Predict the 3D structure of the following.
Amino acid sequence: MNNLASPGMVLAVWISLFAYIGLIVFFVVRGSRRTKNISDYAVGNMNFSPVVLGFSLAASMSSAATFIINPGFVAYYGISAFLSMGVFLPIGTLISLAVLSKRFRKIGHTIQAKTLGQWIGIRYNSKGFTTYFAFLSLLMIAFIVLICVGLTQVLSRSLNLEILPTLSCIVIFTFGYMMFGGANSMVYTNMMQACLKLGVAIILLTSGYEHFANGVQGLLEKLSAINPNLSSAFNTESPLYRDFWEVCIAQFIIGIAIVCQPHILTRSLFLKNDKDVKKFLTVTIIVQAIFFLVVFAGIYARLFYPDLMANGKKIPLDGVMSTFVVGRFAVYIAVIIILGMISAGMSTLEGLIQSVSTTITSDLIKPLTGKRFIKNENGGIISELLMNKIVIGLLATVAITISYQQLISPDLSVGIFAQNGVYAFFSAAFIPVAFGIFLKEVPKVVPIAASVTALVVHFSVYYGRLTHYMQAGTRNPGIASALALLSSVCVGTVLYFLLRSKKTFIKTQIVPVINEA
């Protein structure tokens, strides 16, 4: 382990970390007292303020990727990476969030859905579709791994610890407390984390103000002095941000679909009143827009480490921000930023653990075992809530195993691994959610065909190295996802209009003939 933090910083981080843990435990104990069944765990039973929920969702959406991993891409590849992740993806995401959340919530309350899979299955009257999405939710483990890796990078560097024990402690603590409080505690821990992250976002975004002494052009000239590609809108030397399609169009498409994740859309189900939706979305969008801009701190990191070297060693992409914070800031500021980075990871990790475990328990284990293991009116062995805790324990084991592998041997970044899994999930979920929200009579074959098409195209493009974008050693999952989404939209739209035309023909032509006969 290459020690970067001073003894004073290590001590300060330990003290603040224990205080942070104490606050988390307080909220978890408070929430667990109100959690009596799986429904309480999934969507809560408390009347949450729309402002609190808005901060909570923003905290959940802006993960360790936003604060820890993605700035590393910006540090490595410059302005092109910032435009991709800090401008075009956010535009698509925030527009989609505003459009989809309100109607998703309205339908979700009507059909009493606890998970995204249940929402889709009930909407299309197909239990098999719910089970299908329960299996797909396993892809979200890739996102869990990204967050665990990001948190490990931050804490191991700020405390001068080895990665495996650091990773194990993070997973055991987080997964352990999420076995209890669920939604009731998560909303308040997310609120606390969002407030801390907002302060950290402002510190990071203003920390490089001196680079703007000669305006934006002055900053670009500093980047060009290091490498001309860093100041360009498109970085032809990178494997991810080479042209207009890759930087702008593909990321905008992904942004539109990215909200179709279980820990994002289902947050609107926590609201108790329709009149609170507007305030909830306003708070979420404003706070989230600020969080998205944090990736620009990667530019400051590159100017601080022009050759990406620290203590004589190459800084790995996933370690850029944690190294920058430890090396750039005074102890008291660095501690606040480190806590903010931890909050960035924990807030999303909590949402993922809550949503994925609930989906596996309610939508996979319960129906596939014929309810023989889950207690119900006809018997059963253990309660659904206890089964959910067992699932969380198994997820923790998987998270440690895969995260350690990504820490010691990533493909450029754990971000690539996470994007491949997460992008595949929301590519498959987009048409079922969008058609379910905006169209009334949709034959179930339409969303099923569109969803399967998205999966097939995504993994075929990625693993088959289709298109010239995928020929480099490191492949861009965003290209695979954008093509999968476009293919899914085409298949779903064509099938919908074909089947609707067929249904109209049967009603107008065949039915009258039968009546006349």
